[in-house]
Amino acid sequence: MKTDTNEKLIEKLYFVIHWSVRLLAILMVFVIVMGVIDVGWTLYQKLVTPPLYILTISDMLATFGAFLAVLIAIEIFINITIYLREDVIHVKIVMATALMAIARKVIIMDHESSDPYYMLAVGVVVLAMSIGYWLIHTLPRKNHLEETALHAGTEIKTPAD
User: Fold this and answer.
1) Mean pLDDT in the chain?
2) Percent share of the chain, pLDDT over 90
3) Quick check: is 39 in a domain?
4) Which structural domain range is residue 51 located in?
5) Which residue from 112, 117, 76 is spatially nearest to 93, judged by alpha carbons?
6) Which of 19, 21, 57, 149 gives a 20 to 30 Å CA spacing to 81?
7) What pLDDT does residue 119 have?
8) Has residue 3 been placed in a domain?
9) Residue 79 · residue 94 · CB < 8 Å
């Protein structure tokens, strides 16, 4: 009896979480649309400010930062939709999104006024994220292929076969 009550509670909690994730997907689409509008507005403002129709390096960096922020939001949306479809968080996609976010930080960072320790810390994060992404991307490939073949009911063929 007690186990049955817990299972119903867990089912209800999963239902709430499932709909909460759907709500997050809807809100993320809103954020993406607003981000695209912001990119367009930022670009328009830079182009109509004297000197007209010329983007300086700092204007381009600001625009790149806005573009990358929208791309990060799109990656987060993809993470949400994959979670909704497969009920699994794909670490590769999360790592790629984090790499894109730290790359955005590096691109828009003011290298002249930033604290050297802050820049060193960002560099360490970039290196750690890159190594982590490489490890996730390369090492479990064999396991992933075995798992895929198991689901498909086929045999894995390696180059030596």
Assistant:
1) 83
2) 37
3) yes
4) 8-89
5) 76
6) 149
7) 93
8) no
9) yes
pTM summary value: 0.69
101/108 Cα distance (integer angstroms)? 11
> Residue 160: its pLDDT value, please?
46
Nearest to 62 by CA among 15, 108, 30: 108
d(CA 124, CA 130): 10
Contact 156, 141 (CB under 8 A): no
Residue 94 and residue 79 share a domain? no
Which are the contacts of 68, defined by CB distance < 8 A and separation ≥ 6?
100, 103, 104, 107
**Same domain for 30 and 73?**
yes
Residue 81 has pLDDT above 80, yes or no: yes
Is residue 44 a part of any domain in this protein?
Answer: yes
- The DSSP symbol for 50 reads S
What is the tens place of the pLDDT at every residue in 22-63?
Answer: 999 999 999 999 999 999 998 898 889 888 888 888 888 888
Joined tokens for residue 27 = 């809100």
In angstroms, the CA 105 to CA 118 distance is 11
Asked whether the predicted pLDDT for residue 65 surpasses 70, the reply is yes
Residue 2 lies in a domain: no
Both 76 and 50 in one domain: the answer is: yes
Rounded Cα distance between 102 and 112, Å, is: 18
